[in-house]
Amino acid sequence: MALPGGDFELIQIMDASWADAARRAGVHLACRAGCTQCCHGAFAINTLDRARLREGMEALRAADPEKASAVEQRARGWIAEWAAEFPGDPATGVLGESEADEAAFEEFANEAACPALDPETGRCDVYAWRPMTCRVFGPPVRVEVEGPEGGLGCCELCFIGATDEEIAACEMQVPHVEEQRLLEAMGDESQTVVAYALVRTI
Q1: Half-sphere exposure of 82 (CA within 13 A, CB side)
Q2: What's the burial of 178, exposed, middle or buried (CB within 10 Å: 0-12/13-18/19+)?
Q3: Are 108 and 87 in contact (CB under 8 A)?
C-alpha cells in the first residue's frame, strides 16, 4: 500500500512537537544517539507506519544496498525466531484482534531488539522512516487509557527526580487526529510489527 502524501506533513508536525518538548525538558530528557532501551520489545504499528517503513527500505536499497540487506537479514532472523509465538498470522505479520491475541502480545518478544537497530552502532538504520511510537518516545505524552496507566507517561530514563509539575510542563502534543485521518483514507486498520514491514516479500 502506497504511503499517502499527507504523511510528510504529519512527520513535520511530529518532529516540531518533539523538538519543542525537548527544548522545554532540557536536562531532564536523557535521549541521545546510541541509547537503545526503547529499541527493544515488540510493539504494534499501523498501516501508515508500515507503508512508511517500506518506502524507507526502498530508499535504503537504492542508496545503500549493503545496509538494506543487513536490515532485511535481521528482520528475517527476527521473524524466524518469533513466528511460532506470533499472536496473529505469522505468514503475513498481521496481528490478531481477539482478546487472547491481545493478551499474548503483552508478553510477546519483550526483550527482543528491533531489527532496524544496528547492533554495532546502536543507531536505527531506518530512523527517518521510523514509526510514530518511536517518534513520541522520551518526552511526556498523554496515555488515554482507563486506570493507573492513564495520564502522562515518559521514558523511565528521563525526568529522574523531576516533579509532577515539571513533567506536565514538558508534555508533547501528538497529532492523533491528523494521523487517524490518513489511516482512514488508507482504509486498512490492521496492525503488524516492525520486522514484517522491513522485509520485501511479506
Answers
A1: 29
A2: middle
A3: yes
Q: What is the predicted pLDDT for the residue at 147?
A: 53
Grid cell in block for residue 64: 545503500
- Give first-to-last CA distance, the chain, whole Å: 12
Cα–Cα distance between 156 and 71 in angstroms, integer? 28
Note the pLDDT tens digit of each residue in 79-108.
Answer: 999 999 999 999 999 999 999 999 999 999
Strands 151-153 and 117-118: unpaired
The model carries a pTM of 0.92
Q: Give the residue among 81, 80, 83 at the shortest CA–CA distance from 94.
A: 83
Enter the DSSP assignment of 192.
Answer: B
* CB-CB neighbours of 81 under 10 Å: 12
Determine contact, residues 108/85, Cβ cutoff 8 Å.
yes
Round to whole Å and give the CA distance between 73 and 70.
Answer: 5
Residue with cell 499517502: 4
Helix (H/G/I), strand (E/B), else coil: 88: strand
Q: 3-class SS at 177? A: helix
CA pair distance 86, 65, nearest whole angstrom: 29
Task: State the pLDDT at residue 127.
Answer: 96
| CB distance 200 to 60 below 8 Å | no
